[in-house]
Amino acid sequence: MSRDMRYFNVVVLGAGGVGKSALTVRFVQDVFLENYDPTIEEAYRRVVEIDGVRTSLEVLDTAGAEQFTALKELYIKSGQGFVLVFSLTQEASLREVDNLRQQIYRIKGGDTSIPIFVVGTKLDLVSEREVSRNTIQSLVARWGIPFYETSAKRNWHVSDVFQDLVKEMPARYPDE
Ligand code: GDP
Ligand code: MG
Known about the structure:
Order of helices and strands: EHEEHEHEHEH
Number of helices: 5
Number of strands: 6
Protein name: Small monomeric GTPase
GO biological process, one term: signal transduction
InterPro entries: P-loop_NTPase (IPR027417), Small_GTP-bd (IPR005225), Small_GTPase (IPR001806), Small_GTPase_Ras-type (IPR020849)
CATH superfamily: P-loop containing nucleotide triphosphate hydrolases
Low-confidence stretches: none
Strand order of the largest sheet: 2-3-1-4-5-6
Strand content: 15-25%
Structural class: alpha/beta
Bound molecules: guanosine-5'-diphosphate, magnesium ion
Helix content: 25-40%
CATH class: Alpha Beta
Number of domains: 1
Membrane topology: Lipid-anchor
Organism: Paxillus involutus ATCC 200175
């Protein structure tokens, strides 16, 4: 059956300041925002065409204030795919990725087929890098989750993340 458009949503989660908004806005609007308001939470939409199939992807850029855990649970419940973001320049931000990963599996009832990608940001800040490729590679291998190193500033590998997510969606959600 051919369709004009598929619709999927992904939720972007991670600690504050890691670059969730910069990554999202780079993908959706192809610009780099130096000073994006850290409190803004917004859903964006972009159409992606892969092998002649058009997908309208909603990307929810969260601004996770810890006290709103109920809201976060709601996002996770309704999310079909997840981008878990940490900064390559901030080792501590990896812990939140692990927390979120476990939270997602818990809220999704242990369903490990949920598309989840881990994204390290700020790849351009080479001299500030704190997380080695070996460290993160062994973690994601243990987790069984795809991993990308990106720079929203330089536009490195940002669209790969979302394009590859879109490619995974139909297998997981064949009826959408
Ligand atoms: P959020 O709180 O996770 O949404 O983080 P933001 O997207 O607002 O980014 C936090 C800060 O990191 C801002 O000053 C951004 O300009 C900066 N930033 C985000 N992504 C990159 C990147 O790829 N490279 C560099 N150099 N800075 C970045
Ligand atoms: Mg933000």
